[in-house]
Amino acid sequence: MGSEKVPKIPVVHLSKENFEPGSSSWLAACNDIRRALEEYSFFEVVYSEPSMEFYREIISVLEELFNLPDETKTRNTHPKIGHGYMGKISGFPEGLGIEYATKKDECQKFTSLMWPDGNERFCDVIHSYTKIASELNQMLVRMLFESYGLKKDHEPLLNSTNYLLRLLKYGRSLGETNVGFKAHMDKTFLTLLYQNPVNGLEIRTKEGEWITYEPSSPTSFAVIAGDVCMAWSNDRIKSSYHRVVVSSEEDRYALGLFTFLDGVVQTAEELVDDEHPLQYKPFEHQKLLHFYESSNDPDKRDINIMKTFCGV
Ligand SMILES: O=C(O)CCC(=O)C(=O)O
Ligand SMILES: [Fe+2]
């Protein structure tokens, strides 16, 4: 019998209510999060929300949105790639972005663009979902800082965080065998992904093996480390290389919450020492996005662009 270990995506259980910062279970979870990110750049968090009933609402409003005519969805324009409407091009899902989605008026603006006569239910559901996911993101950042012994330092980072919500649909057209998202690394600090029961998200391990994310419950989120987390952590946490391959007949819906930072981002000085010499110069997150978008390198999705952008 083979004794080879099959790599498994780490799972962390967190609850909004029953979790006292500083308690032993909190500190143990902080360390689990750090270890998961250092080892896999990715983990599953089983959270206390959303309820099953709210989960159904989320998926139902997504179906309603993607059923709108293309000429309505394409009204969602944005100068930044992936922030507005993403058409159905080969290798990518259909997507719609809502920048600053934690703000109710931004959700309202998007809703009015899609439904000029209004759609209060859509607006409320999407805004409430973003609230849940952004609170979870804040808790995770706080725990990550704490696990490195950087107790109070998470506040400036959280205060300068902006959220982009991307709504995604992977639907197979006639004749297509699968639909997906080409392998890439996110240009975020962290990304939180939530989905319907149709799987497809895969991550590549350090050993080069692709493993499928199979969420264990409707309160599971995938947590993905992005390029900015890699620079902040001085390469202790690598950016996750991931892709989506959906071969199911059923449509896959996913919601991605992407975090971007204002101002200058610097590597945490406590994470620089003789064993871990400084890898990245301070940089602006917005300039990183611009650098990536304006690069003509056909392999830019597959390489560590941080080294070229701001490597020491
Ligand atoms: O659909 C997913 O689960 C992943 C999407 C993704 O990787 C992205 O939007 O950057
Ligand atoms: Fe991604």
From TrEMBL:
The keyword Metal-binding applies. GO terms for molecular function: dioxygenase activity; metal ion binding. InterPro entries: DIOX_N, IPNS-like_FE2OG_OXY, IPNS-like_sf, Iron_ascorbate_oxido_reductase, Oxoglu/Fe-dep_dioxygenase_dom. It comes from the Eukaryota. Keywords: Dioxygenase, Iron, Metal-binding, Oxidoreductase. Residues 160-263 form the Fe2OG dioxygenase domain. Pfam families: 2OG-FeII_Oxy, DIOX_N. Belongs to the iron/ascorbate-dependent oxidoreductase family. This is 2-oxoglutarate-dependent dioxygenase AOP3-like.
